[in-house]
Amino acid sequence: MSRRAVATVVLCCGAFAVLAGCSAAPAPAEATKTVTVPPTTSASPSASSAGGSSTDAPGRVFDPRTMQADVRKILTGTYQMSEVGEVLCPSNQKVEDGSTFTCTVQVAGEGKTVTITVTGDDGRYEVGAPA
């Protein structure tokens, strides 16, 4: 084989190696996960006082204890987190499509927040990854 043929083969192989390295897509950054929780008994009607009109009532609100248990289950099961400690979600959060609020959680002794996004008026909500 002539020097010119060898040089051509070497250049082609080098170009192929460079192109093969360039075509490999970099690993995508981990997406923020959200988990939708189906409606359960975590949404309950609020109690109205005797004689009060129904328009004064805030509507349905989430039960914070049930939500805290659900968030803990999602963090340990779906997000595969260990050392999940106390979870605290605020009370009197309305079941209102599009509303958001945060719960606080202890993960490995560190305080984190978890965003809750209500995804319907039926009691469904998404649990975001801890931040």
UniProtKB/TrEMBL annotation:
Ranges of biased composition (kind: Low complexity): 29-58
Listed InterPro entries: DUF4333
Endpoints of the signal sequence: 1-20
Protein known as: DUF4333 domain-containing protein
Limits of the DUF4333 domain: 58-123
Pfam families linked to this entry: DUF4333 (PF14230)
Region (Disordered): 29-66
